[in-house]
Structures are given as structure tokens and as C-alpha cells.
Amino acid sequence: MKITDIRATTVAVPLEAPLLHSNGAHWGRFVRTIVEVEADNGLVGLGEMGGGGQSAEVAFEALAPYLEGHDPFELEALRFKIANPTASLYNNRTQMLAAIEFACVDLIGKHLNVPAYDLLGGRIRDSVPFASYLFFRNPGPGGAVPEVRTPEQLVEHARALKKEHGFSVHKLKGGVFPPSHELECYRALAEAFPGDRLRYDPNAVLSLDEGLRFGKAIEDLDNDYLEDPVLGLEGLRAVRERVNVPLATNTVVVNFEQLAANVLRRSADVVLLDTTFWGGIRPCIKAAGVCETFQLGLAVHSSGELGIQLATMLHLGAVLPNLTYAADAHYHHLSDDVIEGGKLPYENGRIAVPQGPGLGVSLDRDKVAEYAEHYREVGDYPYDRDPSRPGWYPIVPNERWADPDSPLIPIG
Known about the structure:
This protein is of the alpha/beta class and 412 residues long. The protein has 13 helices and 15 strands. It folds into two domains: 125 residues, Enolase-like, domain 1 (2-Layer Sandwich); 235 residues, Enolase-like C-terminal domain (TIM Barrel, Alpha-Beta Barrel). The strands form four sheets. The protein has a seven-stranded parallel sheet with strand order 7-8-9-10-11-12-13, with helices on one face. It has a three-stranded antiparallel sheet with strand order 1-4-5. The longest helix is centred in the first third of the chain and has 19 residues. The radius of gyration is 20 Å and the shape is globular.
């Protein structure tokens, strides 16, 4: 089996409402590049990549000469062909490698008529648990979906998600409002859902003082972990030494050198593995083996997935014996998907691992065409800006917080 072609299509899939984060916002949509890798046997493997609200079509088209004639089974050779460590200093291709690796794993599974998890060691669970992943958010189009700004609104939103999807773990994406306000919101969640687990992620924008203050103030709650309260491994280590809450990261342990540094001088207790950030499913499994050896906890990180990348997260979660935390997913914030059958359903806070060959998902061509056209209409957006705060940009540590007393306005 040899690769004969690669195609990339950018889609913009609407969110139910714009989502706020410490660096800006998701402007009411996810912009994702769908990758199709075709082989000489007629099979097509699927991949997916984000990109901070921007298309990566042109970049993937430029990789076609690297891939023509390549055997999808030769995944280690693929790594050096696309993301040579020295060459990547000039052109970081790790996330592009991930999308193509997804497609090659999909191709291999289809060629052998086995699901991806059987290529990755065999599944030990049939479904993967997920956290609710709560965001402060602007109102949805026409005000049909309400804002989330106050503790009461946050609890109401979490309660609706728990009723619909069965979540028993709740993650609050913070770093938007002053830490004192977000602490009030976080504690309101704990009070509203006794027995459920909690996690908080301000995306590393708190100062060391604020990180310590927040961490100490939640020690009495049922926390899974405090994720990236401050910037950098040394900042995390300083918090970890003084706060009795496990620390997690998805920002500063995203490759094997950083993982080694964290093993030698522990700063984070839990590593959030992202199939895109790490360059594919297989590197995440390798990293999970290191974490198992050195007794680091594992969770699966979300970088704003549609159904193709979600499938990679599910196959990863299916094969990891040391996955002891619920995964993250933005998925329930999407209004639709580009895969056949529509969005994969939650049941009791879990999503079933696809059982078909390869990744086990197929493209709905009509949906791809619909959301490719929508992308042409609305275009890219800057992930690191908030359109409701013109001229604003984040600094680290941040002190330019949104006003929790001002109602949020619709953005698009």
C-alpha cells in the first residue's frame, strides 16, 4: 500500500455559543482542517488539525511531495520525513504530522479490517469517561443560548449538561475574570454537585501569588487537579511544593524532553496527553508508558476536536491502562459534526469507542461541503483575541481581567 494523494479541506463548524478563555475566545465556531490521505488500493484515511482559528490547507498541500509513494505502515519513517527534529526548528510540523499519522492509522486499520485500538495494543475499555468542560461564554446567536458569567449561571449550565450527558467530573476553564470571582464560581460548583470531581484551568495566566492563593483556597474540595495555574515548569513546581492539590499540565509537558525534565524535577503530577500536540496517537502511548513507570497521572487533553480527532482520543483512551482521569472534550459545545451519523453521543458521561475499521468514523460529504462553504463565508479568527474587548490582549501573569459585573454581549 502506497500513498498517492493528500487532500485538505477547511471547515468552520458552529459552536452553540462563543467560548472565552484566558488568551481570547473561540468566536462561535471551530475552524478545522480535514485531511484525507489516499492510497493506491483506493482506501482513504482521515485526519484532522486545528490551528488557532486558522486554515492549514496550504501547508498540507505543500507536504504532498513528501508523502507520495510512502507506505502508511512505515510510521517511524513518516515521523522523520515530515518532522525531522532539526528541520522542524525552521518549520514546526508536529501538529501536521499528527493529522497525517491519524490518517495513516486509519488507512492501516481499513486495509487490515481492524479497529485502530487493535493496532495500538488492544482495548481494555469499551468507552471513555469525559469531564463536562465548562466555559464562561457569550450569548449564542440571537440570545437563544444564554451567557455564562456568574456563579449561578455556571451552576445552571453545569446542571443542564449533567442532566443531558451524565457528567460527574466538572472542569472550569478560567483565566477570564479576576481570580476571586472564578474562585467563587468554582466553589459554587462544588456546593451544587457534592460527590462529583472538579478541576480548574486558568491556562497559566495567574501570578505565583494568585496561583498559591487559589490553590490553598480549594484544598478542601474534591479536586482531580489544578491545571496550569501558573506559567512554566518552575512556576508549577513552586505551587506544587506549597499547595495540597495535584497539579496538571498540557502546556509545558508536550514532548519527551519536557517529560524527562518533569520526571527528574517533578512539577506536574498529571500529564494531559493531546494526540495533536504530541504528534499523533502513538507518541501519546509512548509517553503514557513513561508516565506509568514514574507514577505520573494521565488524562486526555482536548484542543477543540471534531469527530475525527475525537476518535483518536477515544482509541487512545481505550488502550491506556493508566488512564485514571476523565478526558477533556470541547465536543458537547459543538452544534454539529462532519462525520456520518452526526455527533457521537454521551451516555452516563462516557463516549463509546468506535468499533469499525481504522478510526471507525466516516465523513458526511454533505456536512463537509456545508461547513466548507460556511468557512468561506466567515473565514478565520484569531484565537488569542476577544472580539468583545477591542484592543485587549493577554499578558502573563495577567492583570487585564474581564469585568464580572458587565453582561456579556453576542459575538460572531
